[in-house]
Amino acid sequence: MFKNKEIKLKEDILNKTEEAFEQLYKEYSKLVFYFTYSMTGNRRDGEDLLQEVFLKVYVNINDYNPYKSSFKTWLVTITRNHVIDFLKQKKDVVYDNEFIENVIDNTIFSERIEYCIRNLNKQERDILILKSIFDFTHKEIAESLKISENVCKKTYAIAKDKTRKEWLEYEK
Questions:
Q1: CB of 127 closer than 8 Å to CB of 155
Q2: pTM of the prediction?
Q3: How many Cβ atoms sit within 10 Å of the Cβ of residue 119?
């Protein structure tokens, strides 16, 4: 279940090519920032953690196994674990369930989308965004969030249904 692109990416990063790391950052920085910002609820912490995660990826690229999981699954897992460690150190473990406009970068989502997903819980939002915006598979999402694939599929269906209802409500 490996991809030649991911194997090449790992090799390029191992060879310390600047272009490979720039491409990696360009392709995945919004995804990483979404998690760092949404889990901390603080833009500055989110930006600092974004940089730390990419440094961690650079240093630990040998640990990535393209035969075991996709790169983005590995990256989300590293990001999630890094933010949890950060929050534990701060002794401020708060998983933000406030309205989506307080935790999502407004440059990514329009006001209407924010309105439509504001009542989703954190897991529903994460799954909906990973699937719809970042094109993760249910398997990749399940691996990243450490849930079963069936829970992922059901939660995604629920989130889509809630979002559709809010979209129609917004029209009124």
A1: yes
A2: 0.59
A3: 14
